[in-house]
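Thread: acetyl coenzyme *A complex, take 2
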Amino acid sequence: MEFNFDIRRILRPDEDGFVILSPQAASPNNRDLNQIIDELGKASARAQNLKSVITTAVRFFSSSDNKLYIKVEDDKVVGILKTGKRKLFHTDMIGKITEMTPLCLLDFYVHESMQRHGHGKYMYEKMLEVESISPNKIAIDRPSSKLISFMRKYYGLSDYLPQNNNFVIYHQYFDVIIR
Ligand code: ACO
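Output below.
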């Protein structure tokens, strides 16, 4: 995704092309940064056919523990990935409800022109490394069919019980193999 200003000056990506923002560490008053977050949030919602946008600058800067990973290549933004902890209730096969506060994948988007080139995997791996977490321990908010395929392909994760809250927690989260 391209912008009509120098995104590298605003984002200052590291040598791997990543910018990792937390609400406390970034400035909420940078108009260009807010535009980048808003445009990517809108594009992500469009790509997922969502009725409302999940990631906006205002919402991000008013959150407490969300993290936003932005990937840059040359003068373009490749995509975004947002994480945060959420209190969830998970119902298992016998109806037992467990309260948990897992790290959640809240939003994930790679620009249409760059999908299926390995950028998503690269971004996800970066997030796993920064968070020091294995893929089975992440809850996913309403995964799209593309993300379902992505998790199966790269991490062998496919089995879960659908929940009312629409978060997917793979069986491997509990380190139990259910056949
Ligand atoms: N159809 C089916 N599977 C797909 C597609 C597609 N059009 N695009 C990517 N995938 C999955 C497949 O498993 C694919 O492997 P394959 O090409 O061998 O079938 C794999 O992802 C490709 O891996 P990457 O190239 O590393 O992934 P990519 O850079 O495309 O990023 C992402 C994956 C983020 C899901 C991207 O396709 C995207 O932005 N899609 C649109 C938005 C979206 O669905 N985001 C996830 C929403 S859920 C959430 O945010 C919590």
